[in-house]
Amino acid sequence: MDPASIESLHSALQAQELDKLSVMIKRLAPEPTEQEHPIEVPARAPPLGVAPVVSSLAQNARLESPTRFSVFLNNVLQIFRLSCSTSIMRQVLKLLVVVSLQNLILSFQPLFTFDGISLTHRDITQKAILRKTAEVCRDIGISEGWAFSLTIDDNLSADKVQSACSPAGTSSSTLSGVSFLTSITSVYLSNSYVDVRFLLSARRHFDDETFQEGRDLITEGLSAVKASVKMENFFTGRVTLGTIIHTLQDFYSHSNWVELGRTAPYSALIRPDQALQNLAGPTTPTCRNCAGENCDNNLLPEVLKQGLLTSGYFDPIFLSKPAGKCSHGGALDQTSRRDPVGGINKDTSGSSHGLLHQKAADMAVSATAELLQDIRLAVGDQTFLRFMGLSFAPVLCFVIDTTGSMSDDIDEAKRVSFSIIDGRRGTEQEPSGYILVPFNDPDFGPVTKTTNADVFKASISNLTAAGGGDEPEMCLSGLQLALTAAPPHSEIFVFTDAPAKDFVLKNTITALIESTKTKVTFMLTNVFAGRRRRMSQDVNQRALSPSNDQLYRDLAQKSGGQTIEVTKLSLSQATTVIEDSSVGAVVTIFQRVLDPGRPENFTFSVDGSLRHVIAYITGFSVLSYSITSPTGVSQSSIQSSGPLANITTTGNLHRLKLSTETQTGLWQISVNSMSSYSVKVTGQSSVSFIYDLVASYEGAHSDFSLMYGRPVTGNNVSLLVSVQGSDQAKVTEVTLFDSSGPTEVNGSLQSVGSGSFVVTFVSIPAGDYAVTLRGEEVSSTSKSLPISFQRQASTMFKTTSILVTTEVNKTNIEPGTTVSVPFAVATTSDGSVNKLFKVRANNDRSYASTSPGTVMIEAASGTRGTANGTITLTVPETAASGTDVTLTIEVEDEAATDINYSVLRFSVAAKVVDQSRPVCQVVSTSGICPSSSLCVSSQWIFIANITDGINGTGIGSITILQGNGSLSTSSVAGVGGENVTVATYNASCCSLSVELSVVDNVGNVGTCVGQARVNTITGEPTISTNVPATTATGNTTTTGGASMIMSSPLLVSVMVFYLWK
């Protein structure tokens, strides 16, 4: 491009002159020919965002001059490794326009809207998840005989659903909604990311009549979700779920489905075995010009009369579209300026067809719920609830050193876990899952991940302490496996008496802790006196040195966990912290670490929702402390049993269990020590919160997207804060606190509904920050002083001057294939000198991977340059579908004083060939039920043959979806050689219908429905007509009743009722 063109283009972008831009870009990069196919590239990125150079330069380099703008264009081409061909330049310029005008949204608003009317992808996703979760709980309640009292409507909240799904008699203070909140949030943040990463991808939004391509994205993703859930890799399943429901939801806003008068979702979009019907042909006109600004009637009457399905075309630069076709519409859509002018999108109430926005959004909710129902049927009710994050207690997660000196530690881990399991089995406080990771040297793993307590008990019982000659062990490798296996916001307990041999993984562990917000507590034994390998006289020389111990302290502090240092003989007294934290609804009220130590007074608020408040102080050397209640009563550390707390001391751990009648108000803990120490206060409460770092979009339609990695020092930082129990508490303040300063930064709050807030902090300085939330109890009355509450997020985050952005076109990888991850590195520091950065990439599956060791940012005449590279990850052919893999990319400056990271999750998804649902053929319905009240004494039987075809993957499960009878199955040989499963359902005449859910081995779902005939004539005999059928092979299973083995030959009766869905 010549300098004059660059200057003109730069000027038009700065002024946001769309007409001028369109003319210029058409001259620089003419209209595409039919042979050219646009590449799918990232288009809309947050500040520092996803399209590496586009965002990092366009947003941060402040392209004030055409010279810098020219550098920017060259770097854009470089990052995509593309030549300056006409078609590529056209795509790059489209990117540039969209990034420059990123306040314009081209779908349902991703997260938030402030017009008070329009619904966003976040609203739609939350409504569907809450509705479907509530329906599952209701159905479980009916089948198990417990009351479900919640009305399922549009007024549901996560708190209401969590409470209604809880076992009867559960105290609200022991209900933890963090997992549920986290799951919902991860799905809608993944949903919104599609608008960030793939704004110009027509198939991801059903633009340009790409119905088959969009349906393929949904169905392929749906298969990947089911595979992930089947492997209990829920996190990656939720990420994939969010991306596909974005596309599904956009169908109802971007197509004319609603205008056609449809009142139910288009089920073919989630069922690949159903043909897409009545699509408008590529040359069929679909729209006429709008009447001025009014586009209410711009769809052609013939289209509506024939029920033809169409969607709008969209292009931010070029006017071209097929003759007579509808446009998307809106200020950024250039196609809407060509006849037929206008658009048909229903993204907001102010869109071209905005009058139908609410109907489109409601349809999108129903369609999302229908997709969730398909997942539910494929995986089962209990697994579905766990996938949605509905649990009442955390997972129990142990990482255990199994070398020779750890025998006592293993026994204690076994004892405390057995105590928790046996004492809570069958209650709401039973752990929601169990994870066990052993390690030694050179081995670590495998991971035992289960919801079956007996499987966990067997696994931990099989651990033996053996081997180990040199002292360091593979502790961090084992911890890495646990961090990627455990749900976010978990707590992991690490048992060891040795330093970490793999200390090089410290930054990887830190990145995983920050991204998953997981606490890590280290149980270190024999720290003082002779540790490890009692094999010779030099035992005392193998003590864990202060420097080795500091690694564990740093990781515990970063995560909000603790480093507990005791002797092996006293370990059993310290493991009470595991019992304390493994119950539901544990919240952190206050936490501080002082290193080096100093005398300090710490205050914290206790509110009326808190139960079982416990304070922990860890520290050695000369340490004394006292605790003071709101009424001024004090108790010192020398009083093990006093008026305020029961105090126990084991090693460096001081545990203060506050009395049952804990007073509300402001408490104080005073610590006197010059050595490092920590103070942590926890309790059980239904009031808690989670947060996510988000990047903001400024403009007329401001919005946010999830931020990956650390925020940049000196920039504004935004948090999306979601509060559980928001009906019980009024949030008044959210702050960031860095104890090393100490520095406290106050944020400005903006409510976005559903108990969530966007909190903005202006120009935060460098530091390690903990997030603190404060407010008042809603129950406080005007007759008394308001009762304050406070909560603190356990995990801290750190600011950085390094920007790391990655480009991931897909999160699902086929076995035997390689995925490439381009990345870019930029820095906010002085750009006048060359800068070298170290790059490290590793994954938790030890899959083959390549990565550059370093990248160089070259001096760029004072502008912020970038360095680019590519990392590859190869999935072996033997990897099972549904397996997840976590790739951590770290970029560190040459002096090792600053680091940033990107944590990417992928799911292994084998290509699904079997896309057909199981086929149900009713064999017979026998027995006629009386119409009188004597139903208990009468029975009816429903029999069906179920197959998955000769080329199918086979029947995986058959369950009773509706009905109170018993089900048995047996295997028979079909006439064509296919396997046939005979399902026999037997019920009393008090239950007159049955619906069976049939799932094949790749998750395709069908249902089979039968109904008994009711005798309306007194004394009418039962009629049965039989003909020979198939021969049984004798393999039989039974569900919910006595086994029924099919005899040979089978008899076929006249079918009374048959319905196949």
TrEMBL record:
Domain VWA7 Ig-like: 808-910
Domain Hemicentin-1-like von Willebrand factor A: 396-568
Subcellular location(s) per record: Secreted
One GO CC term on file: extracellular region
Domain of life, source organism: Eukaryota
Positions of the Hemicentin/VWA7 galactose-binding domain: 587-686
Keyword Signal found: yes
Domain VWA7 N-terminal: 157-385
Pfam family of the protein (one): Ig_VWA7
Keywords associated with the record: Glycoprotein, Secreted, Signal
Gene3D superfamilies per UniProt: von Willebrand factor, type A domain
PANTHER family, A to Z: NG37 (PTHR14905), VON WILLEBRAND FACTOR A DOMAIN-CONTAINING 10, TANDEM DUPLICATE 1-RELATED (PTHR14905:SF18)
Protein known as: von Willebrand factor A domain-containing protein 7-like
Record lineage: Eukaryota, Metazoa, Chordata, Craniata, Vertebrata
